[in-house]
Please model this.
Amino acid sequence: MSHFLKGFFAGLFSLLLSFGVWAGCWSQPVFAASAQSTQLIEQNQSNESLQAGTPSSYSSAQLKNLKKSADAVNALRNRLESFQPAIEKRNWAEVHTGVAGLLPDLRQKMTSVTDQLALQDRLLARAIATEVFIHLERIDEADEVYDYQAAETNYLQAVQDFDAFLGLIPTS
Model:
């Protein structure tokens, strides 16, 4: 019977390997989204000077709702800042707990803000939000293997992308 199981698992492993599952294909879409997001961010930066003079297309009620949602996202941005001391101290349990607690709230709040943005800003906001999520997931992966450098790098990139996201939210 053990010979049968050994053959079964060997066959299953080769099947998974042939589909790329074991080789890490699950991370492929992350890298694709990351490259696409980076391209959108760069395009937006080159177009910022053109958009600076355009009048607001938001009503006062929409701006009020956006401000309320942005305040909630900004509060989560402040929670993100608490990760840096934990990363510096290499307190991986605290880092993991922080990411696990922040990520669900952050996904919901950033999606809510993104859905309220004008159509021309929505795609970029989604791309930047995706970048923030990717960096947080990579921080969590880094804490599992005690990789200080990866955790610190992704923390800094998450903060930078978070600020870019907040910069898309109109104030007037």
Remarks:
- Residues 119-144 form the longest helix (26 residues).
- Residues 59-172 form a domain with the Four Helix Bundle (Hemerythrin (Met), subunit A) fold (CATH 1.20.120.290).
- The CA atoms of residues 35 and 131 lie 10 Å apart.
- The helical segments are 2-19, 28-51, 60-81, 83-88, 92-116, 119-144, 148-167.
